[in-house]
Amino acid sequence: MLPALRIAARRVPAVRRSATAFQAARAASTWAKVPQGPPDAILGITEAFKADSFDKKINLGECYNTPRPAPLAEYDHVRVGAYRDDKGKPYVLPSVRSAEEKVVKNRLNKEYAGITGIPEFTKAAAVLAYGKDSSALDRLVITQSISGTGALRIGAAFLERFYPGAKKIYIPNPSWANHGAVFKDAGLEVDKYRYYDKKTIGLDFEGMVADIKAAPKGSIFLFHACAHNPTGVDPTEAQWKEVSAAVKDAGHYAFFDMAYQGFASGSTDKDAFAVRYFVEQGHNICLAQSFAKNMGLYGERVGAFSIVAADAEEKKRIDSQIKILVRPLYSNPPIHGARIAAEILNDPALNKQWLAEVKEMADRIITMRALLKENLEKLGSKHDWGHITSQIGMFAYTGLDAAQMDTLAKEHSVYATKDGRISVAGITSDNVGRLAEAIFKVKG
Known about the structure:
By secondary structure, this protein is of the alpha/beta class.
């Protein structure tokens, strides 16, 4: 018996040593070398806004603190990159409500959509973008996507795999923050072309055209079709024509991102000018469309990606490869939001109602710009605030620097990004006067 006890006693330290080794191995986690990502600048603005107890605080970043019912209390901030009504509240378009009621009433099945989505939606989305008489429609490859971001990702993946030139895409400086990330993750190299002129708070058109001409022949260029994000600065129609000529002369390829069709000017036709003109001039472009902004279908994630092919035979080949790309990404797109969009685009009465509502939203943004400029001038500001009304769309570059934006937040409870960009959707009839006073005190 005693020898057995001695053997057991000798075994205990070995077991302990084994446990210690196991714990040490666990401490060296598989993910021990995963670095901490940088903080989100917008999130910091949101947190500062939420911590501010002043009841007349203003958030002009991308998030807006909105009280919610108890079951949804965890969603205590939502995007101001989304449209807001004149009370600063989320807005569901009446046409969307009506279309959704029709979809629900029809008691449709919940079967999978095809890989490229719901044809009733994609066909109508193509007409909306390119125009009902466009020469591109018969040779267009189009797929439903997971909103505009998904459309960009599909396009990036296709270009990375099949574009015959250098795998580099030029994006405007500045551009929507996610553009660079989407293209880099797809394996494309990202470079920038001149776009915004800080001195004029406007378009650096000469620099833009010069960079297009200087880029290696056959480069890919991304263009915002309208309501440039984040500057709100768009080329004129005459300038777009010069851009088209420069792109064609250099043999470049144009990739358009149209996230705000109808939301910029209030006209879906006017906002699609650049896309349609490029096609008329023989550019076989590709296009990312989003229905988040112009239909308020943010969480439904409704979008489309399309490529203009040279002919029917090329269309067939490209379509086959788009399906091969989409299948391992997400297999097929969601159906509910696309059904809503299809109802709006295909029902004449709903379509007319929707177009009027889009114009109302665009007009509210335009009115807020005019009121901000008017209030600043009434206060006696000696600065030229013409850029506030010459810019267009959801966002505006104020011309304020980082120090001035800090002062706005700390002394006036007005929150926005350090580069002086504001979301015009966060301006209301109730707060525009106080906002102008705050800017005047900081900028003069």
